[in-house]
C-alpha cells in the first residue's frame, strides 16, 4: 500500500524558515537598535517562538481534518464566541497589513525605478507626499480588489518570481557582507563591543520604554508560525522529528537574524548611513532600501571603485531590491486580498454572517471583498490625512501592523489552556506532558506578547507626545473586535 510521501525533518525546517524569516526585519531592527537588537531576538525566540510553535503543533495535530484553521482549534477549546472574535482579530491583522503595504508599495516602486525613495517629492493636486501616498494606496486597493473579484490564474507566477528574487536578496546580503569584510581586511564599519550589544546607536531608542516596545518587532519577526499547525500529520516520524525540527528552525532563524544584523554592521556605519550618507528622509518604509543602497556603495568602494561609480552600484542594488520586493508584495497582495477572508467566512458558521456577505462569484466572496476594500480605504484616508510627516506616517503604519499581527497570538496561546484541560479532545502529538508545563508556557507567551503590545501602544504618546500613533495602533484591533461582537450578537438574536 503506497503512502503519501511525508515531510523529512530538513523539508519541515525549510518550510518553517520560509514562512517566518523576513529580510526587512534585519534592516529595520538594525536601524532602530543596531547590534543591541540581537539580545531581544534571542529572548523572543526562547520566550515566544519556541513555546508558541509547540502549542500550534499540538493544536494542528489534534484538529488536522478541520477546515477552519485557528477558528476550529479555538471553537472546540474555548467556545464559538471566543473563537469567532479571535479569528476576526486575526483576519483584521491582514486588513491592516493591506493598509500598510498598499501605501508602502509606492516606496518599493520608486526604488525599483529610480534606485532611491522619491515618494517624498510626489504630489497629486498640490497635496503633500503623505496624502499623495494615501490617494495612490486607495487607487491600488480598488485595482487589486477589482482584479481579484474576477478570479485569478496568473498571480501565482508573480508570487513565485518575487519569492525567488527575495530569497536571492537574503543570499546577496550574507555573501555581499562577507565579501566586503574580506576585501576590507576584516575591518567592521560599525564597531562591535559589549556596550554596542546593550546600547542602541539610535538616540530615539536609548530610553527603557522604547527598548521594551522593540520586543513587539522581535515577536513580529517570528510571526507566521501558525501556518505550520497543519504539518504535524504530514511529517515523517512526527513524535520525534516535529519538536526537533521546530527547535532547529528556531535556532536557525534566531541565528539568521542575529548574524544578518552583525553582517549589516560590517558595511553599515550607523551614524554615516542614517544621518550623513542618505539623501532622503529615513522612514520605516524606505530604511531597507537605504541599507541595501549603502551595501552596494560599500561593495563598490571595497573593489576600489571611484566614489561616483560606487554610488551607481548602490543605486543598482537598491533597484534590484525594489523590483524583487515589488513582485513579491504584488503577488502576496493578491493572495491576501481573498485568502484570509475566505478562511474567515468559509471556516466559520454561515449563520454568523449577513446573507449578502456569503455570496460567491468566481469562487470569491465578492460582496465581502468590496466591504473589506471600503474599510481599508477608510483606514488609509484616516492615517494619510491625519498625520504630519512621512516619518510619522510610516511609524503609524508599522506600529498598527505590529500590534494587529501579534495580538491574536495572545488569545490563541490563552485558548491553549482550555485545550489542554479538555480530555475529550484526542491529542496525537503532545509536547507539553503536564498541565503545569502548559500553564507556565502560556503564562510566558501571554506575558511577553501582552507587555510588548502595551509598550508599543503607549511608547509614542509618553516619549514623544505622539498620540495619533498610539491611538491608531490600538484602533484597528479594537474596531474589528467591536465589529465581530456586533455580528455575533446579531446572529444570536436571530
UniProtKB/TrEMBL annotation:
Alphabetical UniProt keywords: Cell membrane, Membrane, Transmembrane, Transmembrane helix, Transport
Protein name per UniProt: Glutamate/gamma-aminobutyrate family transporter YjeM
Location of the protein in the cell: Cell membrane
A single GO molecular function term of this UniProt record: transmembrane transporter activity
Species in which this protein is naturally found: Dolosigranulum savutiense
Pfam family, one: AA_permease_2
Gene Ontology annotations for the cellular component aspect, listed alphabetically: plasma membrane
Transmembrane segments: 12-32, 38-61, 82-109, 129-149, 161-183, 203-225, 246-267, 320-341, 362-384, 396-419, 440-462, 468-488
Major subcellular site: membrane
Alphabetized Gene3D superfamilies for the sequence: Amino acid/polyamine transporter I
Organism ancestry: Bacteria, Bacillati, Bacillota, Bacilli, Lactobacillales
Topology relative to the membrane: Multi-pass membrane protein
